[in-house]
Amino acid sequence: MAFSVVVLAAGKGTRMKSSLPKVLHPIGGKPMVQHIIDTVNKLGATNIHLVYGHGREQLQNKLSHNDLSWCLQDKQLGTGHAVQQAAPYIQDNEDVLILVGDAPLIKESTLQQLIAVKKDADLALLTVELDDPTGMGRIIRQGSQVTAIVEHKDASEQQHQIKETNTGMMIMGGKDLKRWLSALNNNNAQGEFYLTDVIEMAAKEGKSIHASQPSSAIEVEGINNRVQLASIERAYQDEQAKALMMRGVSLLDPARFDLRGELEIGQDITIDVNVIVEGKVKIGSNTTIGANCILIDCEIAENAVIHANCIIEQAKVGEHCSVGPYARLRPGTVMKEKSRVGNFVEMKKTTLGKGSKANHLSYLGDTEVGEGANIGAGTITCNYDGVNKFKTIIGDGAFIGSNSALVAPANIGANATVGAGSVVTKEVNDNELAIARAKQRNVSNWQRPTKK
């Protein structure tokens, strides 16, 4: 049977103490509600109705790439009132899966199971057993049949002893849902329209109400404050780390690894502690990533070694390359096979040719380096005149002496040599030696200054 999804995402999240709507706070580098949308898309829903309210412009800007039906809840008057905003878009002959926007770890398999349970019932809800159910709505049963959900503040002392709780997630027929929504009232301790009241309405009509449970309580744990946000982040990262290790990645400390995007991997990869992966990253086989590295939207080929404390962003590292420690590869950088950069080297929009090396304390910006070249310590390609950027070309086999400044636009020929300490402003042809520095002068009998 066709089904649509309603995602409740209108709340302010007051306890987050933030100007950012609660559902936009990130888990694994992605808004928590985006995790839910991505999971729902795998289910093949006909429509996704997002109920939004607080921070509406921020939500629409951040989630604009999704195919969503936007349902505005101008005033937040409860979960039942929230779903009422989607009612005009719900078809009588479809099932409607209702999800909360602050439980980002819900699994596709759990929702598939809930949908399957609904096939043998009029209504199915997702419940969870908690050791401490304080604050949660309690599931009321008569035998195996669910008859009601009582909110914590409205529950009796006896009902407070119930461990089975409501997750806020359920599925039912569209026609039934709209009828029950129209009959809701706010005669309760909170003065709100509770979606949970539809359970009691369904029971009174003699509808069959079945429950399903997730494989783990963490799947349905909601986020209301920064402590819970951090807890869910750790649970998410633990899940990602375990998945990577099962695929053959060696994480030297899984608790100190963060995946905030997508990681494509080869075999026999070793990742040291405190590595952060953001965006789309590809790491080839037999590659080692040292401690404290940040990898952002980059590609690292097979047999590369990334030493500790490197940042690689929108760059490509070739096979058998060596990077760092303490190197920074900025957007547009390409390292060809067997090239290497060492400590405190920064490259931006630069190609370092096969077998070339810049081992120490250098900046290469807007530069094309050929094969087998050596860039000495302290070399700078001066690519910016304060207004425009210019390119430097360094030929195959060139040797750039230490502490040299190549003022772009510059062209250093194949097998050319630049003497240490030079400031090069003119073209250097193939096989030439360029020396551009003041002539040394030694002063005999020099008297050092003395204190007066």
UniProtKB/TrEMBL annotation:
UniProt region (Linker), positions on chain: 227-247
Recorded metabolic or biological pathway in which this protein acts: Bacterial outer membrane biogenesis; LPS lipid A biosynthesis; Nucleotide-sugar biosynthesis; UDP-N-acetyl-alpha-D-glucosamine biosynthesis; N-acetyl-alpha-D-glucosamine 1-phosphate from alpha-D-glucosamine 6-phosphate (route II): step 2/2; Nucleotide-sugar biosynthesis; UDP-N-acetyl-alpha-D-glucosamine biosynthesis; UDP-N-acetyl-alpha-D-glucosamine from N-acetyl-alpha-D-glucosamine 1-phosphate: step 1/1
Segments for region (Pyrophosphorylase): 1-226
Pfam families on file: GMPPB_C (PF25087), Hexapep_2 (PF14602), NTP_transf_3 (PF12804)
Record flagged with keyword Cell wall biogenesis/degradation: yes
Residue sites binding acetyl-CoA per the record: 377, 383-384, 402, 420, 437
Entry binding sites for Mg(2+): 102, 224
GO molecular function ontology, one term from the record: UDP-N-acetylglucosamine diphosphorylase activity
UniProt EC number: 2.7.7.23, 2.3.1.157
Biological role: Catalyzes the last two sequential reactions in the de novo biosynthetic pathway for UDP-N-acetylglucosamine (UDP-GlcNAc). The C-terminal domain catalyzes the transfer of acetyl group from acetyl coenzyme A to glucosamine-1-phosphate (GlcN-1-P) to produce N-acetylglucosamine-1-phosphate (GlcNAc-1-P), which is converted into UDP-GlcNAc by the transfer of uridine 5-monophosphate (from uridine 5-triphosphate), a reaction catalyzed by the N-terminal domain.
Record's protein name: Bifunctional protein GlmU
Source organism (scientific name): Paraglaciecola arctica BSs20135
